[in-house]
Design a protein that fits this description.
Blueprint: E1 4-13, E2 18-27, E3 30-36, E4 47-50, E5 55-58, E6 60-65, E7 67-68, E8 71-72, H1 78-89, E9 93-100, H2 105-121, E10 127-128, E11 131-134, H3 156-165, E12 170-175, H4 182-191, E13 195-198, H5 205-214, E14 216-219, H6 235-242, E15 247-251, H7 259-269, E16 274-277, E17 289-293, E18 296-301, E19 304-307, H8 319-331, H9 334-341, H10 343-348, E20 366-369, E21 375-380, E22 383-387
Parallel strand pairs: 1-4, 1-5, 6-9, 9-10, 9-11, 11-12, 12-13, 13-14, 14-15, 15-16
Antiparallel strand pairs: 1-2, 2-3, 5-20, 7-8, 17-18, 18-19, 20-21, 21-22
């Protein structure tokens, strides 16, 4: 039996225009029509959702997240990822990449197998699109909150084992291109269609540019744990800012990056090349206290996550707050901030054919929000997974 749903009376955001009193129709998980009331023929017998006074936007997509709602990706279980999926859906996220940290080999294998299982079984919340391996192939000098004990050089055997365990569902690997073995790793990742991302790196400008030439196309959490810009040595940051080949993640929690630096990134890269992420850990959505990032203790005070050493250790950010903060701190429109949380991440990981915008033929992944980005409903492939 056909399952047709209609969202009407809301302000619909599409790639080409913003439609007042717009209509979105979807059937069996796919969008079939988007337009104004006079442009779209209303199907008979459809389930109608009234979005009066609200904005109908593509669902947010978080490609860098370690946990939330008290659960962590590094637990390595389907149950943990399913709970994270439900938590992020309550904040308008319809798809995400569970993200690992530098850890023992067996822990990483367990984590990617859990991601694979979540993709196969589906979740009760946001859809799992694959895994993001952040580390362990990073520079120990820029490890940040990654445990030094588990940071290591790239190993062809280990990456082969990880990719096989994940059945090639890995979407991103964040690495430091200057460490021994990274050039070979970048080539291998590109061969498999995996995004090679520069992060936790102390590379010089020349080393970073060489990595871009090899196939690096993305940068993890711009400004954080990367060699800073200097007028005589632009470093990784200089490469990120001026090379259009790179998309750049932004943790817009007003903690990891100062609003002025946010503005600099957006003005330099342009609004098509900045990707909003949360870098959230299990403490997101939870009260202050002690939590885990991998095997390390994280102390959360006033929503700020730090190791006992004082090092920032992920965030408690959610994607709705990321959009809200970016609007206010950078001074951009809701429409533009939404693009940075929806279309841009899908382009970065090459899933924009099916996701990231409200267009016929794409998945019915939808967030209904107000002007302050409060989330009223989240729809994943046509199914309502959260309702306020």
């Amino acid at each position: 039996m056909r399952k047709i749903s209609v969202i009407k009376n809301g302000t619909v955001i599409t790639p080409s225009r913003t439609i007042k009193n717009g209509v979105v129709i979807f059937e069996d998980g796919k969008i079939t029509a988007v337009g104004g009331e006079s442009d779209v023929k209303m199907p008979k017998g459809a389930k109608v959702m009234d979005a009066s006074g609200k904005t109908v936007a593509p669902g947010f997509i978080d490609i860098h997240i370690h946990g939330g709602g008290g659960r962590a990706v590094m637990e390595g279980s389907y149950e943990a990822i399913n709970e994270i999926a439900k938590f992020v859906a309550s904040h308008g996220t319809t798809a995400f990449l569970p993200t690992t940290v530098s850890a023992p080999r067996d822990d990483l294998l367990k984590a990617v197998r859990a991601v694979k299982k979540a993709m196969e079984r589906g979740t009760e919340g946001a859809e799992v699109l694959g895994a993001h391996l952040e580390g362990p192939f990073i520079n120990p000098e820029k490890r940040g909150a990654h445990d030094a004990e588990y940071v290591r050089l790239p190993s062809p055997n280990e990456i082969k084992e990880l990719l096989e365990a994940a059945s090639h569902t890995v979407k991103i690997v964040t690495l430091a291109p200057e460490v021994n073995g990274s050039k070979e790793l970048i080539k291998e990742l590109r061969k498999h269609g995996i995004v090679a991302s520069v992060g936790h790196s102390n590379a010089t400008y020349r080393e970073a540019v060489d990595a871009v030439k090899l196939g690096v196309t993305h940068a993890a959490h711009a400004f954080n744990e990367m060699r800073s810009f200097h007028q005589r040595e632009p470093g990784v940051l200089g490469t990120v800012l001026v090379h259009d080949e790179l998309t750049a993640e932004l943790i817009s929690d007003n903690i990891h990056v100062h609003p002025v630096a946010m503005k600099l990134l957006v003005r330099t890269k342009g609004t098509d090349k900045v990707v909003l992420v949360t870098d959230a850990i299990q403490a997101a959505g939870m009260p202050d206290g002690k939590y885990k990032l991998g095997k390390q203790d994280v102390i959360v005070k006033k929503g700020v996550c730090r190791l006992e050493s004082g090092e920032l250790a992920g965030s408690t950010l959610t994607m709705d707050n990321a959009v809200r903060n970016t609007m206010k701190s950078v001074g951009i429109s809701l429409r533009t901030a939404i693009k940075m949380a929806t279309t841009n991440p899908t382009v970065a990981i090459s899933v924009d054919k099916n996701k990231g915008s409200l267009e016929p033929g794409k998945d019915a992944d939808i967030a209904i929000i107000d002007d302050e980005v409060n989330v009223y409903m989240t729809i994943v492939k046509g199914k309502v997974v959260h309702k306020a």
